[in-house]
What does this fold into?
Amino acid sequence: HNITQLFDSPTPFTAAPAQTVAQVHSYSFDISVWEMWGALLHGGRLVVVPEAVTRSPFDLHDVLAAEHVDVLMQTPSAAAALPTQDLESVTLVVGAEPCPATLVDRWAARGEMYNAYGPTETTVYVSMSAALTPGSGVPPIGAPLPGAALLVLDQGLRPVPAGVVGELYVAGAG
It folds into this structure.
């Protein structure tokens, strides 16, 4: 159920016919599910990048540019090492780690960029930011996808007011 919900959820970078998505993650990393099936179930083209290529930001850059990749999902640390030149048409989606403002400033200045959040147990991601803009600071994790909810609760599992520290809980139909 989680996977079908993931593919049916409207996101700014939902794979579509004529889009090319790069699969750069190991099958053991949950984001590979979206990379593979997000492209194939929507009629997009999937570029399976060899593991040896993914280890070199320069080799990865060359494959992304040569294959005219439209959508790339990366951790912020991996995206930080990747050159941006000739990747203006790539929509970058980051997740799995906190995203620094410096990365947003660098990548969002040349094209679309989004921040996704979701622990593995939620099947890839449960929230997505709006398109990020340079100079906007540390990006938010965005709004929950349809069927999901994000709650900040105290130790007694009571909602806390905005700005008060608490624990982030994910809820929903998944």
Observations:
- Helices lie at 2-8, 31-40, 51-54, 57-66, 76-81, 101-108.
- The chain has a mean pLDDT of 90.
- The longest helix spans residues 31-40.
- The chain has one domain: 2-145.
